[in-house]
C-alpha cells in the first residue's frame, strides 16, 4: 500500500474532495484525522472508514482548533506525516462589489490564513520526525480566473504562491509542499461557483473543460495520493492542474 504506516490530517474532509482523499488515503494504509467544521459529517466519514480514522471538529481559521487537530494526529496515531489543507470557502458568483466584507474576510481566513495556522502547528512536528508532506488545495481559479469570482480567485492565487515559497523554505527540513488545482467539481460549493445550479449553467461550465466534464472527488484523491506518496519524493513546489485541460 502506498501510504502504509503514514499519518495524515485532512481538512474539509466531511464531504467532497476532502472526503474522497480521506477514504483513498485510508484505503492505501494511512491513518487519517478527518477534520471539518461539520463535526457530524466528519464523524460519519471517520466511522465509515473505521479504526484507521478519527474525527475532529475544527474551524481551520481558529488557531486553537488547528492545534487540537494536529494534536489529535500525534495523540491518537503517534505522529504526523501528511497534512492536506483542503477546507475552502467562496462567495457566490457575481459582481466583486457585491461581496460583503464579512464574506471576503471568511474566504481569506479559510482559504489562506488556515495554511499559515496549520504550518505553525504542523511544521515543527514534521521537522522533528525528519520530514513530511503538505498538500494545499488551490484551484484553476488561481491560474485562469473565471469572471464573477474575483475574491475567491485571489485567495487561490495566494495559495499557489504560498505553496511555492513554502516548498523552498521547508526543503532543508525534508518537507515537500505542493498544491492541487482542480477545476470546478461536484462539491458543496458548486452552486456558488456557478451562481445558479441549472442545466444551462452546468453546460456552460462543462463546455470550458476540454475533456468534457467537471472534476470528481476521486480525480482529486488520486492526484493527492501521488503527491503524498514516496513516488513523488522529488516533487515539491508544484501546482498540479487536475482540470481536464481547463487551463490550456
Please supply descriptive tags for the structure shown above.
15% strand, alpha/beta, 8 helices, seven-stranded parallel sheet, 248 residues, Rossmann fold, globular
Explain this structure.
There is one protein chain. This protein has a seven-stranded parallel beta sheet, with helices on both faces. It is an alpha/beta fold and 248 residues long. α3 (63-77) runs parallel beside α4 (101-129) and α4 runs parallel beside α5 (150-170). The chain contains eight helices and seven strands. The chain has helices spanning 16-27, 39-49, 63-77, 101-129, 150-170, 190-194, 199-207, 217-228; strands at 7-11, 31-36, 53-57, 82-85, 132-137, 175-182, 239-242. The two termini are 33 Å apart. The longest helix is centred in the middle third of the chain and has 29 residues, at 101-129. The chain is globular and about 50 Å long. α4 (101-129) links the parallel β4 (82-85) and β5. The chain has a single domain (7-242), classed as NAD(P)-binding Rossmann-like Domain (Rossmann fold), CATH 3.40.50.
